[in-house]
Design a protein that fits this description.
single chain; about 110 residues; alpha+beta; Alpha-Beta Plaits; 5-stranded antiparallel sheet; 5 strands
């Protein structure tokens, strides 16, 4: 018996920099294949989003470890799209949730405002 911890990634960008957003979607397709949703266009303000579904593997299994590596590579790729000042038109969140109803944000590039 193993423990399931799901990781899902939500990515949002704007049409003013659709080139960067499309690069992120292509990278997700390359890394995650069919787990990557099509791009969804918002009704207002030109926002676009897509989703990377969890791999479904139990923690510690080879597929889970591979998923961890791919999520890190993807997050690092999105970070590489940032402007010189560190801001980024492509935002993401990698959220983990498990069968014990625990949730956690594993990584994001959204800045906290205090």
């Amino acid at each position: 018996m193993g423990f399931i911890r799901h990781n899902a990634i939500v990515v949002t960008g704007a049409d003013y920099n659709s080139g960067a957003f499309e690069k992120a979607h292509l990278k997700a397709m390359e890394l995650f294949g069919l787990l990557t949703s099509p791009i969804v266009h918002s009704d207002w303000n030109g926002y676009m989003s897509f989703f990377v579904a969890p791999d479904g593997s139990k923690e510690g299994w080879a597929d889970s470890v591979e998923g961890d590596k791919k999520r890190k590579e993807f997050a690092d790729f999105i970070d590489s799209l940032a402007y010189g000042d560190g801001s980024n038109s492509v935002k993401f969140v990698d959220v983990a949730y498990d069968e014990l109803h625990e949730t956690e944000i594993e990584r994001t590039n959204a800045r906290k405002v205090i």
